[in-house]
Amino acid sequence: VAHVSDVHYYPWEYCYQDVGNPDYKESDFFHSQTTSTKLVNESGNILYQNIKHMLKLAEEGKMPMYLISSGDLTKQGERVAHIDVANAFRYLQNEMRKIEGYENFQVLVTIGNHDVYNWEGELYDKTTGEAYTAESVSLGQFAMIYNGLGFPTFDMNILSQIYGEDYFGSVFSEY
Questions:
Q1: Each residue's pLDDT expressed in tens, for the chain with a length of 175 residues
Q2: Which DSSP string corresponds to 89-150?
């Protein structure tokens, strides 16, 4: 069993990136980053590099058959972050299952104290760095987002009809 904890992923697309702006150091985004120990800007690349490393280990026959990610998957429970993490883990699971000997590889996800009903999550305007409240998730939404990762498999067509076509969309693969 491999174990990953405290990913604290945050989508790069919601990071204020205009560091050349004279007001950058006054932005909500800058203040949130300088008062936190979480590697927000780096979190996507760290997750991506870990996934690549696990796939390499599997090619060498050195990766365990299970990966447990024990909570605090997102910075502060942002729905968009959960979707990216879930899609990244599903990508890992699917790619691992293509490797001989790992056909039954399974990712199992658990909830951390930052992951559900967290009303402190924020996203940031790309042009001003101003914070606005991020959509949080309930326990039920968490289970649906992490569909097949230790939670029952839901019919994504039905879920898309309930939540809309783009609810489960992700840009994680761009990393």
A1: 999 999 999 998 888 888 888 898 999 999 888 888 888 888 999 999 999 999 999 999 999 999 999 989 999 999 999 999 999 999 999 999 999 999 999 999 999 998 999 999 999 998 899 999 999 999 888 988 998 998 767 777 776 777 777 777 666 554 4
A2: HHHHHHHHTTSTT-TT-EEEEE--TTTSS-TT-EEE-TTT--EEEPP---HHHHHHHTBTTT
